[in-house]
Amino acid sequence: MTGSSQKRATEPVADLDFLKIFLPYELRLAQRQAMVSSSRSGDGTPSSCLGLYLVRLVPMSGDWFPAAADGGTQIGDHIQDMLLEVIRDSDIPVRMSNQEQLAILRDLDPQQTYAVSQRFLTSAFDSDLLHAANLRICVGYVIYPLSSQPNYPTSQWENIIELARRMSTLGEPSSRASGSGLLRGPDMTESGIPESDLIPLAMRDPEALVKPGLLQIQRIQLLSNAE
Question: Which domain holds residue 142?
């Protein structure tokens, strides 16, 4: 058994049932922590945040993804191994399906949001298995809270994941590895827009909120020499 396989065998990986209970609690905690740290910082900037990183595998051509018995489970295990290598022991990996996995990063330094996605994409880009399966690796992430008034109903946690999924679609289709993240913008505190209004707007068109400085988008794209 390899080192990464040993780690996967000993560390718990959550599923959707766990997510339904766990994520609302983590969102509420992130809201409280952001309000406390923002008041202390003076400029409304939180000292820590919650990162929701969605990893999605997309066929380079067509829409075929291997069934579990045809290699899909092996590919899902492979992605899980790579995630466990780049996240911390305190972070929570969630296996949503063989094709889609989620990593919940707690108490994340706002300055490290880009580095997490970059490390994973670099590892995935070099994967012989993913190349052989002709799969594209897309990461979409949301750095929560997005507003200086974090009042979004935590019972609607699925919308936050859907927003991360939406971000994973922004990369160049010809790239084998790409990532896009959504973060609080530089003018968010001054605008005073509550999260309950902001997130529905972001669900419809996140890029429209970048120009006025309400949100910002980080983009990562790795290209092979042939591209």
Answer: 3-222
Tens digit of pLDDT for each residue in 139-198?
Answer: 999 999 999 899 999 999 999 999 999 999 987 777 889 999 999 999 998 898 999 999
Name residues whose C-beta falls within 8 Å of residue 213's C-beta, 6 or more positions apart in sequence: 185, 186, 187, 188, 191
pTM: 0.88
The answer to whether position 143 is within a domain reads yes
**223: how many CB neighbours lie within 10 A of its CB?**
13
Query: Domain for residue 190, yes or no?
Result: yes
Question: Of the candidates 183, 218, 209, which has an alpha carbon nearest to the alpha carbon of residue 51?
Answer: 183
User: Which residue in this structure is represented by tokens 């968010």?
Assistant: 188
- CATH number for position 201: 3.30.70.270
CA neighbor of 156 nearest in space, from 206, 216, 199, 115: 199
Q: Which residue has the tokens 């999260």?
A: 195
Q: pLDDT for 199-219, tens place per residue?
A: 999 999 999 999 999 999 999
User: Cβ(125)–Cβ(222) under 8 Å?
Assistant: yes
